[in-house]
Amino acid sequence: MQPKFPNIAPDRDRIRRFYLCEDVKVTLSDGITIVIEKGHRFDGQTIPFGLRGFFPAFDTDVYAALVHDALLDTEMFHRYKRSFIDKEYQRFMEMPEYFATRTRRYFFPRIVRFFGYVKRTMWGR
Fold first, then answer.
1. How many Å apart are CA 42 and CA 67, to the nearest integer?
2. Domain interval for residue 12
3. 2 in any annotated domain
4. Exposure of 2 by Cβ count < 10 A (0-12 exposed, 13-18 middle, 19+ buried)?
5. 3 in any annotated domain
């Protein structure tokens, strides 16, 4: 099955990396459907400079990054904890229809969880 990827454009204001050009409906693992509205800006995966040759920032797993960033950006308006948001990221990474490579499926959820922990404990966010 070929998935329908959302229509994404580069962010012209360079505030974030990408700009969502259409509304996207997402069903979370708890059965709740959320709508990520057109115009949402997100950074995809923030890849450390030394690893950009191995992991391009925009890949088939951009959908998982979109959902993760949208949930984090709206964290103050919903009841989901950071652990749930990170698990959703991993769930979308593991969906076979998005063709994330085995390396990305293994490393990226762990990296996201680690840096989320560091950010939360060191910077209090």
1. 10
2. 8-123
3. no
4. exposed
5. no
